[in-house]
Specification:
Layout (H helix, E strand, L loop, with lengths): L1 H20 L6 E11 L14 E11 L2 E2 L5 E6 L5 E6 L9 H9 L2 E2 L4 H4 L8 H10 L6 H18 L1
Antiparallel strand pairs: 1-2, 2-3, 2-4, 4-5, 5-6
Length: 162
């Protein structure tokens, strides 16, 4: 009798976990927005920015139809590094309202290229199902929506450079 009760509890717990992780979990989506940032030269600056704009690609998570306030990643050209593309991860900034914190994060930002997501990306938000899969089976390749967004940006960058 005890054995049947334990088996019933285990089965009920597994079913509850599956229901919690799949149908009751928030739905994740990833969107990319493009922003044009005007460059303004400071007096005595070594670069001439007159009437130039910087294109920034911002990647946002959307949970159950509500977009996060801040982008997860911001990708833009770094004019101090021979105009290579860099990616700023929001988790690396600290206080998003502090200019010094933002500047320090930009100075240490990763280079954005085809390998960045696989080797340098650190801040990916997982769904409950992705967390469960990670706990049970290890890393895996669960971030298809993020990869699509990153590839969309890479395609846009490469088409603009040619």
């Amino acid at each position: 009798m005890r054995k049947k009760i334990v088996i019933g509890i285990v089965i009920a717990a597994i079913i509850a976990l599956i229901v919690w992780a799949i149908p009751l979990a928030p739905q994740k989506d990833v969107i990319v927005t493009t922003k044009e940032i005007p460059l303004t030269a400071k007096e005595g600056a070594q670069f001439d920015y007159e009437d130039e704009t910087l294109t920034a690609y911002c990647v946002y998570y959307v949970w159950d139809g509500e977009q996060d306030e801040y982008p997860q990643w911001s990708i833009f050209q770094d004019f101090t590094r021979d105009f290579e593309w860099i990616v700023l991860e929001t988790c690396d900034v600290g206080d998003l309202n502090d200019t010094d914190s933002f500047i320090k994060a930009v100075e240490s930002a990763s280079r954005f290229d085809e390998n960045w997501f696989d080797y340098d990306c650190r801040c990916v938000q997982r769904t409950r199902l992705e967390k469960l899969q990670h706990a049970l089976f290890g890393g895996g390749d669960a971030f298809e929506k993020e990869r699509i967004a990153i590839n969309q940006i890479l395609l846009s960058i490469h088409s603009g450079e040619e």
